[in-house]
Design a protein that fits this description.
Succinate dehydrogenase, SQR/QFR_C/D, two-stranded antiparallel ribbon, about 60% helix, transmembrane helix, about 5% strand, mainly alpha, transmembrane, iron
Length: about 160
């Protein structure tokens, strides 16, 4: 009995639309693919540290309130940590959704509109999140009245 041979899937002629030239070797898609892998690893570490400090260390879930966040964000280390976490998570998620849109949106106009909405939402969320992290004031003065809580320094 003769054993049938199967040609390698890449041995056939490649369509010119898919041929890679010397100038396309360092293209955007390769960078996006690499970013997804690296940011995924960094995000896993950052998320577990975030969950550990917020939920496991100390009093657990019962400690998480406005005062807990105010105390955390009083330190520039935690501000930068949460900022990097926000930016990485948003860019990682945006890149993943961009890939899904490219894979499943059939019309170029649909793909353009979906990615436009995605990029707009990403920019708005990153800007608002960054603004909140760096302008957060746990001891506000409203209408000339200082709303002093136990964690605010007295003036």
């Amino acid at each position: 009995m003769a054993v049938p041979t199967v040609e390698s899937p890449r041995s056939g002629r490649v369509s010119p639309a898919y041929s890679r030239t010397r100038s396309s070797r360092g293209n955007f898609e390769m960078g996006a693919w690499l970013f997804m892998r690296l940011s995924g690893v960094v995000l896993v570490v950052m998320i577990f540290v975030h969950l550990w400090t917020s939920l496991v260390a100390g009093d657990g879930i019962s400690q998480v309130d406005f005062g807990f966040v105010a105390g955390k964000w009083a330190s520039p280390v935690w501000q930068v940590w949460d900022l990097v976490l926000l930016w990485l998570a948003m860019l990682h998620g945006t890149n993943g959704v961009r890939t899904i849109i490219n894979d499943y949106a059939e019309k170029n106009s649909t793909r353009m509109w979906l990615k436009g909405v995605l990029y707009t939402a990403t920019v708005v969320i990153i800007l608002l999140g960054t603004l909140v992290i760096f302008t957060f004031d746990p001891c506000p003065v409203i209408d000339g009245v200082a709303h002093v809580a136990s964690y605010c320094p007295t003036a």
